[in-house]
Amino acid sequence: MTDTTDPVRRLPLVFEAPRRGKPPKHWFDLSVDERKDAVVAMGLPRYRADQISRHVFDRLEDDASRFTDLPAEIRVELGQQLFPRLLEQVTQQTADAGRTVKTLWRLHDGALLESVLMRYPGRTTLCISSQAGCGMACPFCATGQGGLKRNLSQAEIVAQVLAADQMLAQGLIPGTTGRLNNIVFMGMGEPLANYSAVIGAIRTFLAPGPNGFGMSARGITVSTVGLVPKIRQLADEGLPLTLALSLHAPTDALRDELVPINERWNVEEVVEAAWQYAQTTKRRVSIEYAMMRDINDSVEHAHQLARVLRRRGEWGWVHVNLIPLNPTPGSRWTASRKADERAFIATLEGHGVPVTLRDTRGQEIDGACGQLAATHP
Ligand code: SF4
Asked: Most Cβ neighbours (<10 Å): which of 97, 203, 268, 336?
């Protein structure tokens, strides 16, 4: 078994997931050229790749037996080789009068993951997972307590989006049958610790038809605890994605405790990397700050946060998103008092920092950020 702790610093080794059986290869793992090569290897002309992608991305059909414009014998082989079933639905819970749906999925090796579909007025958002579990060990987070099981493959990430679009097309969410507008990597896992699969999946979300979902980069948010070299790499991709930095504390003393990876890249380093991301991409960075009662929610913390975020004399690059903590059963970390939330917001606003308090959508099904536990017996 892979040792996931650093012997010197006792930190999780964030770039190395435990090795398990490889997920089966899927159409969603392949680039456009690789899809063409794959159909040629099956004895088909290259144009068949576009035909297959149209079934998948335009018609949301991933059952190869229904690709009726292909020869029947090829459909069987294609299904076996490139369209294996990746996600098996275990449970589904709804909240907010059916406008929030959390699905627990089982992967080929028994690993569990969750995704949450949320309908807002005028848009639909999917919160997806990038890893089964998480190795970042944030003590207030249900996912962190279970540790990292493994990285998801590119196809397992894309498959969550296809499943959500299929649910929408079937009218699962009242009031809409449209496609997803937003994807947020705020489910299980640290997306930047599974960088190549995540960026490959994002390129599939963005690719215009017939090769992808044709989404806008502005509708995609990548959330991170602050893996500084990977933030820089993401900035250099040339994609105007939204970056969300899970800061949760304004000082190193407190953040070392709440977000252990801070011992490797501290508050100053991660905020500077986020600021540089904003300069490069021209996208405002979202600072995620889970409000924890009597831990990080005092007026003094708000003053410290404003000082930390002030870059080159201004706050135009940033937006603070306060998250009411969704308490984990049996945990000492709990949600802030309403009065403390109000004082915190007023203090930030007094400094001129743009700030909002996130709505608690999905809270009754543990669907808040960093709270997905995949708790199935
Ligand atoms: S808060 Fe996010 S990064 Fe930290 S353990 Fe939970 S899922 Fe991982």
From this structure: 336
DSSP string over 9-34: T--B-TT-PPP-PPPPP-GGGS-HHH
Same domain, 45 and 143: no
Asked whether the beta carbons of 305 and 350 are under 8 A apart, the reply is: no
**pLDDT tens readout for residues 297-309:** 999 999 999 999 9
Distance 64 CA to ligand 1 centre (A): 36
Q: pLDDT per residue over 184-203, tens digit each?
A: 999 999 999 999 999 999 99
H or E segment to which residue 131 belongs: strand 131-133
Q: Is any atom of ligand 1 closer than 6 Å to the C-beta of 138?
A: yes
**Angle, alpha carbons 23-26-30 (nearest 5°):** 115
Which two tokens mark 200?
Answer: 């490959």
**3-state class of 319 per DSSP?**
strand
Tell me which of 240 and 329 has the higher pLDDT: 240
Test site for ligand 1: of 11, 185, 225, 257, most ligand atoms within 8 A of the Cβ: 225
In a domain, 370, yes or no: yes
Confidence (pLDDT) at 10 = 40
State pTM to two decimals: 0.91
Residue 18 within any structural domain of the chain: no
What is the span of the domain harbouring residue 36?
27-82
